[in-house]
Here is the input.
Amino acid sequence: MDHAATREEALARIAAAQDLGALEGLRVEFLGKQGSISGLLKTLGAMSPDERQVAGPQIHALREAVTEALGARKAALESAALEAQLASETIDLSLPAPEAPRGTIHPVSQVMDELAEIFADMGFAVATGPEIEDDWHNFTALNIPESHPARAMHDTFYFPDKDGQGRDMLLRTHTSPVQIRAMLQQGAPIRIIAPGRVYRSDSDATHTPMFHQVEGLVIDKGITLGHLKWTLETFLKAYFEREDIVLRLRPSYFPFTEPSVEVDVGFALVSGPDGKSRRVLGGSGDDPGHGWMELLGSGMVNRKVIAAGGLDPDEWQGFAFGVGVDRLAMLKYGMDDLRAFFDGDVRWLAHYGFSPLDVPTLSAGVGARA
Amino acid sequence: MKFSLTWLKDHLDTEATVEEIAAKLNAIGLEVEGIENPADQLTGFTIAKVLTAERHPNADKLQVLTVDAGTGDPLQVVCGAPNARAGMIGVLGLPGAVVPNGGFELKKSAIRGVESNGMMCSVAELALGDDHDGIIELPADAPVGTPFAEYHGADPVIDVAITPNRPDCMGVYGIARDLAAAGLGTLRPVAVQQVPGFFPCPMPIRTDDPEGCPAFYGRVIRGVKNGASPKWLQDRLTSAGQRPISALVDITNYVMLAYGRPAHAYDLAQLSGAIFARRAQDGETVLALNGKEYTLTSEMIVIADDKGVHDIAGIMGGEHSGCSETTTDVLLEVAYFDPTRIGDTGRKLNLTSDARQRFERGVDPAFLDAGLALLTELIVEICGGEPSEIIRAGEAPSGTKVVAYDPALAERLGGVAIPDDQQRAILRALGFGSDARWNVIVPSWRPDVDGAPDIVEEVVRIHGLDNIASVALPRADGVARPTATPAQQLERRLRRAAASRGSHEAVTWSFLPEADAAAFSEGNGAVWTLANPISEDMKAMRPSLLPGLLAAVRRNVDRGASGLRLFELGRRYLRGTSGHSDERLTLGMVLAGEKAPRGWATGKAQVFDAFDAKAEAMALLAEAGAPVENLQVLGEAGPQFHPGQSATLRLGPKTVLARFGMLHPALLKQFDIGVPVAAVELFLDAIPGKKAAGFARNAYAPPALQAVTRDFAFLVDAALPAGDLVRAIKGCDKANIVAVRLFDDFRGQGVPDGQKSLAVEVTMQPGEKSFTEAELKAIAEKVTGAAAKLGAVLRG
Here is the structure.
């Protein structure tokens, strides 16, 4: 018996099935309990062994061919259905995605973190003190007695209040009172930086009545101006990430240091892509096209200050320095108006602020590039 | 302190250029603030001889000159000056030169059709004077072709900033002494010639305040003629930035600027009786030379005569007794005043003067006689007259300071080894004496030096700070140790957490307008208020971080921002104990206006609400390591907040870690802000510190069995905070219940008035074995039981 015709007809009908329902109908028609091919299989039982040997493989082959065709057609129909579904789900991906707000770290905070990182490597801890100070810590203990002309150097904000000991209360004019507090609280040896807000009654493009300073203090045995020079060089090279930073030390006068040293740093005038020329630190100020800019004040801590800090000046000596944090930020990151630091203009903050992921590290360089 | 190079050379014999002098001044601590070099202005101007002068063919008033400027071929120049004529020598500006008066650059040009290769200049054009009637005529022997600046002898002026410790350098002579010590020349000693008196001083002089005015020396010079001072004197004063007035005044100013010795010259005719120093009487007034009247106190010293006050001692002379053109007899005052008293007086009167600057820093107490002699000599020379004998009332402090020094200190403190003999030479050049055992005698003009470190400073600065070698600070072995305190770590972490959640960090002023501060304070003088604010807007120290941020919100909204997230982490200033401040680290955050703009997917813009503030508060507290699971949401965020949309986050009933919510509309109105603002304030000092440091975590293995969730819906009183229900359920079976999440808050159909339906999903975690139905039922009973205590009824 030849099943070629049955087979061809079945395969043709399977190929023509347009949906999964029709295909299932065909499966029942051919292979179901009452199906035509199932019926053929049942005839094998009534055959002689010789007949069965001939017809059996033919019927089984027919059943396999139909089963396979049904499976293939089912996969094809499913695939087509999925494609149709996906086609219907197409969206315009040029539409904007939901935006997560982007926050920033203020340059002052970023620079303070950079400084903390650099100085931590040199063994300096970060110390703090009150901004509303008494005049003993801010002036007297720093060898600035009441009538000293140096008090006139500071345009001090005063409160009408006095503390429990009758001292005038004021806004600290520098971070130097933290020197006294550190000495009184922790004794020697000391290596600290003290960043923070300071206040002077002054206001123009480069002076604001509030600004930020960082104080450095080292008290130990055998500390000299040579250590001060190394510390400042090392810090400034690390902060500006330039090996060609050149310092010029000039004798100066601060009541709380003796000897006192003003530090200049060499810069070049470089014109930027915006056509504005900008001071870029590096090189000697005496080189052609270069100049010196005054950067910070420093010196060996005055014996009277060490004594005011409760330490024996015959045993302990050291150096101190103070530098403007806002100024350091401006020199490194290129802002030109100090007043904008304190305005809270989100456009400025978005432009000059730093990603919170820009945590200063020594291994990656403390500066934030993006 | 300004002075010309010529003036410096009166006192310093040197060949050094002005640049070398400036560099050395900087190196020894006399900071050069600027050098004005008139020669710089005269670049391109050359001495030239007029060879021929012809009428201009096309202009009546112009001439066409041929000029020899030493450049080879004669140059043709058109000139309008009437005095231009053949044979004269003048100054030619060549093309490229910039005319000092007017600042324009000369160019080769054609004037009325005739080529002109420069300009013959007038005195006014070169900014050398006012004369512009004709071109400069130089003597016949003026060297043709020489740069005019060289011939003119333009005198550079050096401007030096003198630190308050160096009154001796508030005179040119003192600066010369420092330069000589630094090897830049030889100091010319002061040539003091005592001028004998010809008659007894007719005016009694005394000091009635030996403490404030220990010494008052004086003499009369009679028969003087007070006119204009000579050119050399005027030039020196002009270089110092002072306007010459009259010979007598100029001479006192000159002695002050040259030697740091202030003095005063009175018109004797205006004085009566005796002249003396005394304390002012409270309320006494004086009309000073600057035309202003000052009211004095008994703390101040005045120079007075029998009729009244003439002079605020050591600070400013009086209007009535100064010298004028008609002065014929003059009384000179050379005194020593207590520096502290002069400083105090000047500050109280808010009056600065050259004299005050010197007296308050401390003038040389051993220079009174020399100063008087210098003044007398100059007056007699310039104004004529006959000096009286000198009256010396009191005497200036004369104690000699001796400092025990050790030359090894230069290295121990200064970090540079300097041979002993070199140190001695430096000190000697500065006027310090020293004996074999290094007792150093401080000169009378150095009130600032009183200890060995001062001597180190003197030696090291003259030796040169450049010679100090860098020496590395000793460094602990190994990797640098951590130094940040837990509080500092918390601060840094919170700052970056807030920014990473989308807010910009701002830094705002510590001081605020009083009204802004008052809106955030508890009242009762809690706010620190400045006595001398720079403006009313910067008067009160902030008691909260929010007002400063709100001011920033207003500015941003005014600039067109529709939505913004700002935070600041800094101190707020409260009253502490015993009159000190209590400065607390605080994080303030404001979420203003639109949270998200209108969008294609989201439709209308969304506005920030109180839950946005809560989300920030909770997330930041979690970053800070606070036990956020245990926090209670309670009221009383403060009157600055919307009473129904704000809360505090507390650990226990008293410890407030944060407050958050919508700000009160009335407050926003006060701050002139037209958009809703949600705000957070986080009190860093209240956040409990993390427990003992250590890196190991508690042992943990994810449970093998899956957690089971069950939903419960309760009817509760509408006023019951949902958080109370969640806390109650969470706490009812801590062994099994690991999470309770509220997912529905419904009022309306099917819920009685005054009630609401709250639905929670309770997650239970089995341990070793799965829960049996009985166990689950028991847990469910605990849940409903705990809820029932709050009046909650399980919904059917």
